[in-house]
Predict the structure of Putative ATP-binding component of an ABC superfamily sugar transporter.
Amino acid sequence: MGSVVLKNVCKSYGDAHVIKDVSLTIPDGEFCVLVGPSGCGKSTLLRMIAGLEEITGGEVAINEKDVTDVEPKLRDIAMVFQSYALYPQMTVRENMGFALKMAKLPKAEISRKVEAAADLLGLGVLLDRLPKDLSGGQRQRVAMGRAIVRNPQVFLFDEPLSNLDAKLRTQVRGEIRELHRRLKTTSVYVTHDQIEAMTMGQMIVVLREGRIEQVGSPLELYDRPANLFVAGFIGSPEINQLKGEVVLQNGEMMLRLADGSLLSLPPGVQVKPQQKVVYAIRPEQVNVVDESEQSGALKATITAIENTGSDMQLFCNTGGGAFTSVFKQRLNVREGETVWLQPRVTGIHIFDADSGQRVACH
């Protein structure tokens, strides 16, 4: 199989700089997810790896071979698109074997490879059907099968699940994970869905405006976001962010929120008085406490309650703005009530308000 290495890669369309000096190493056999908001450059970066987009500067290497100026068909990659891109007049068997036929492989070898891939994907009984007779999930499996038969060094997936409904996306997501576990082929997967990224990727690359914000495992990004953008993008519901100013109160560093209320900061955090910071905590990292126990807690007025059966979500107003909390237990609370929310020290993140960079994670 093969590693993928990008070295100082850039892409510009006239004065518009889409990819800005990106360097990245994807090890052999890794499942890497490129994630970020629309327009961040993730699909452009994938197409540059594939050779479908000419790069403006830098180098692309696959399996330690410089392929910067190599045609797509010679890069030994296979791409799965969002749109399936199946030939409507061809059967599943013919669609899956088309690239092998164009490569002039013997019919017996084509048949063997197609049937092996069909068995792997549960398509054996569908080989003689046309695409119009298949469901969306089956068509996407055919598109994956067409890539698998080529036995490439690298699989490239460009938002392959975005045309499927929520239930089918979850199913096919699992199938792609199982496929990678069995084949161990280096895979690069593009999505704008951070839940998809978290559940599929071994390695996640968060992009914004053509630059890499952070690279790491799903839990590294969730537990130790490098900056406010990553903290806000990764995680659902989104992380809470309370802006305030650091003050020294009775020898203790506290955060003064917009309404003047005070919130305890984690002990030992490296901040200084008058520094503007953002206090961030994930919705599941708080407890409800009695008012008599409210030292260091956050006073919150409940504006809405959502019960999903497994979770209860409280939407509140606080002295620092809106705040969402998630609880596994069902609390005896009502809209309009005031509660005290006690952040768990181990879940608090502090970011500098001006730079957005992390000051501390606990």
User: Anything to note?
Assistant: The chain has two domains: 4-233, 240-361. The chain has a mean pLDDT of 92. The CA atoms of residues 350 and 360 lie 5 Å apart. The two ends are 39 Å apart (CA to CA).
